[in-house]
Amino acid sequence: MGICISSSHDENSVRTANLILMDGSIREFSQPLRNNKILREYPGHFICSSDGLYIGKNISEVLHEDDQLQLGQLYFLLPRRKLEYVVTESDMAALFLKANSAIKQRKRNNKRVQPLFH
């Protein structure tokens, strides 16, 4: 089972692609953005979809360089050393807590969506 986070949807809210960083912060993008543009800022990392995280399995659904982050999806930025890593229950719990905390913090702060790279 992948990570699934439920949230209420405000009709006036902007659909975004959400990227959870290792420090628990969140980056939001209001338009699809290529993976390679984001990874320039984070050498030694990769991005995976929350849909590709399963306990007891290797991380799947890793974005390739030309793949785009899709609106309405949740992604994680992880260190490359985790590419061949089998996800444990504690890993899944830690990722869930980071995602949940980041999303709650964003809602509390009502932050603006990050601008796209030029």
Tell me what the structure shows.
By secondary structure, the chain is of the alpha+beta class. It has one domain: Ubiquitin-like (UB roll), CATH 3.10.20. Helix content is 22%, strand content 19%. It has 2 helices and 6 strands. Strands 2-1-6-4 form a 4-stranded mixed beta sheet, covered by helices on one side. The chain has a two-stranded antiparallel sheet with strand order 3-5. The longest helix is centred in the C-terminal third of the chain and has 21 residues, at 89-109. It is globular. It starts with 16 loop residues before the first strand and ends in a 9-residue tail after the last helix. Residues 4-12 have low confidence and may be disordered.
